[in-house]
């Protein structure tokens, strides 16, 4: 076995040795190692995906300003994060600190990308206050591999201005998915340029992010507990998809939702012509208010009531390629501390990853952030080894199923027909 | 008289066809340039003209100039490397017979027939052997490899198009073989070299996957990687203003080179491909 | 050399042999940089990719020899099997379109006229835009909430198409994009072919009273055969390996209707982290392309050897571009 393992790499080394003389000149391009020697301040490399990197950058800047250890953050294009991590992992070239979309964590743990940080985490006095969904996905067989980094949670964002024009009280809480559908229809009735409900309908990762909470709030499940089986054809799930399907058919949800892969979602909401949008809390940062748009927040309700949210975002861990785990942990521990969570995150209207710090001097200033913080308590993060290839991959089996259920003629039939494909993707 | 009318009618027909077609071909580029400076993202407020999209670009990450410098380094390695390797190789293929020539030829051809994404992973492991895994030079060399089939064939055909008497005369004048190549033949294959160099530049300037996968440090990213990072938000949300500015910044150098060198590369094709 | 003094009549052959050896050495020296690049950056990695295709190759940890499992799995990979038909359809359509539009443009701009240089440049300029940039540009154009196309259709009283929303529309929209991107490049290749046809041939035909259509059918097209053959091979190789247009513009959608073979390979490698399966698909593609190209070479070989060379010279150009 050992010889099968070594031989390809040895073959490469041989080929390399043969040609080395010809490429001597290129040696000047070699990278320099980044770790400091004894006593010198260490430079710790870190990767984050572009869509959450602005938050990572705030933490890194604040940390670097007051520590000897320096964090060198590299921002990787979001859609290419998997590719980059895969290639680097295969070559043992991962950065010391690796942030990851939380849903990929079970797979990354299985691929041995992260070091065990169980003892370090358990030594934290606030260990119990770390967002439970994130902790769950970064833990396997009782071993902890990551800590929460940033929160991306799903919610309904509404244009208060438009709701008032449609005769809806924007401050009233949505009681149910059916009420959302009625209100959306009322907004759409204002005129052809107005849309009742908008969401990202051509992106499976996004649909599970915004639609699973409605299933949970209805008392159902989207996946089995071990993450190997789809429960999307269960009654609770089917009912949720049927309501969204009705909204699409009736025109409360515009046709363009079918093509929305996420690229223009924020721009569409920013026009002020949309009553409700299903999205993540990043909308509050990304979309500017104006006289036609005042943004309010609602939880995602179930068919007849209840409320839930999908707690996504990023976790962060120490990679298996890291030579300076102590320096890396110094940073990670600091990012979870009160200074980072309150003075850096909360002050910038960013949600804390600690439940004990959800209420703080800054969050109180924005009732929408307070509301998101409350919703977090009802949040869930689904755990499945093959979540990414099933629900995030644009060519995975979920997207076809979701689109057929949301925009086709029969939601139940579509979800039932796709069970096999989704189950086999989750299982293998 | 009738010939002139006929020519006049032909001209009218020509312009009536060519003008709308030219508009169709140029419109997407013009629109991209326009939307990069117009809209609410361009002003950061009410829709209008503004340069905010470009300012975001300039200030992004390590700063636009870092990425431009990195891209230029890759482009220089790619263009110089492609030219040196394919001029020498094209000369060898055109003027010498040596064992393994056909095999080498087939090896170069096969480069075209392998999907890049798969081959990049083993190439990365090869580059590691040389300590080139996180280096702009390594990325440049990979572009040289991908450009090699085109370069070799263009240069070989260009040398084929030059009369052998040219270098025989130079040899009689006492120049060495290499001297003849350098001082006499190069002038004859300049158009083909311009073509090869230009396509190497365009390929390296636009290359995305290789620098993305091979460069581990954000400060050494090239322009396309930075541009893709800049416009990406959660679940595929795109900053469309930044996108347009990025397309413009990526395209303008290539467009300029195309326009400036047009005469040469049209001749390069003719000299290299047709006469050969 | 001792032999030259020993047998004078053999010395000429020896000298010839020595000269040939010197020639071969010199040839190898000039070809050495190419050989180094091809061997180190291509053939050795290709060999490694082949080895990967014989193994279960995880990201971290031990590869395990499992041949021919990765190859057998291709037959079970429904996404890949579906992509074969789509890729072939795309290849046939683009080949015909590139040829017809490229030839039409080349005929349009072949004669010297005031401003003809401007038009040539105008048609060629899209080729300077990277394929990924071009895909993004059209992604924005096709977005009816953002791009102007919807408004333009509306202005003319036409129904606004859902450009990327249905399988047929997404396919057509992508073909329009790649045509925009590559038509000028094909035009310039055909233009060089046209300009190589001696003016006297046309003059003689015209003197015989041939009309425009007869000249095209009986003179231009036959003499363009090598160039046309070249474009055929170029487009076929490039289209079978098509990746970016569909990866960026349609993401293989809607509902996996525009997934090409290389997209499925990319997914195996970078989404499923199954390098063995991805390498196996790449090997199958390589063999198929070598076979297709060998067949085309055989078909055109007897016609014109010089044409064959031309053919090579330009094949490189397009596929390189096509791939990017």
UniProtKB/TrEMBL annotation, chain A:
SUPFAM superfamilies assigned to the protein according to its UniProt record, in alphabetical order: Periplasmic binding protein-like II (SSF53850)
InterPro entries: Bact_solute-bd_prot1, SBP
Signal sequence region: 1-32
Domain of life: Bacteria
Keywords: Signal, Sugar transport, Transport
A Pfam match: SBP_bac_8
Matches recorded under PROSITE patterns: PROKAR_LIPOPROTEIN
Transmembrane segments: none
PANTHER family: ARABINOSE-BINDING PROTEIN-RELATED, DIACETYLCHITOBIOSE BINDING PROTEIN DASA
Protein's UniProt name: Multiple sugar transport system substrate-binding protein
Automatic annotation (TrEMBL), chain B:
Biological classification of the source: Bacteria, Bacillati, Actinomycetota, Actinomycetes, Micrococcales
Protein name in UniProt: Carbohydrate ABC transporter permease
Gene Ontology CC: plasma membrane
Source organism (scientific name): Agromyces atrinae
Listed InterPro entries: MetI-like, MetI-like_sf
A Pfam family assignment: BPD_transp_1
Membrane topology recorded in Swiss-Prot or TrEMBL: Multi-pass membrane protein
Cellular compartment(s): Cell membrane
Domain ABC transmembrane type-1 residues, every copy: 68-261
Residue stretches spanning the membrane: 12-31, 67-91, 103-124, 136-155, 184-205, 240-261
Domain of life: Bacteria
GO terms (BP aspect): transmembrane transport
Matches recorded under PROSITE patterns: ABC_TM1
From TrEMBL, chain C:
UniProt entry tagged with the keyword Transit peptide: no
Protein name: Multiple sugar transport system permease protein
Topology term for the membrane: Multi-pass membrane protein
GO BP annotations, alphabetical order: transmembrane transport
Coiled coil start-end: none
Organism encoding this protein: Agromyces atrinae
Domain ABC transmembrane type-1: 84-296
Protein family: Belongs to the binding-protein-dependent transport system permease family.
Record-annotated membrane-spanning stretches: 27-52, 90-109, 121-142, 182-202, 223-243, 275-300
Subcellular location(s) per record: Cell membrane
The keyword Transmembrane is assigned to this record: yes
One CC-aspect GO term: plasma membrane
